[in-house]
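Our platform keeps sequence and structure together, in a single record for each protein. Nothing more is needed to write down the fold, since each code stands for a local backbone conformation. An entry from our holdings is shown next, in its original layout:
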Amino acid sequence: MSTLATFIQTPVAQLKIYFTQSWNSDLIASLTVAKIAIPQSMAYASIAGVNPIYGL
């Protein structure tokens, strides 16, 4: 197999493994972080006396 074909096929194979194994838990983790970080950053902006949209 050529080097270019190996270079392209390896990441594709890794992505298939990732989507079948880790996608669900990574989605839950990202939603959890967003649920905490967005209101927190808006609150810090309010404490600083600026419009909360600037906290985003």
Summary: DSSP finds two helices and no strands in the chain. Residues 26 and 32 are 10 Å apart (CA to CA). Helices lie at 3-21, 23-48. The mean pLDDT is 85.
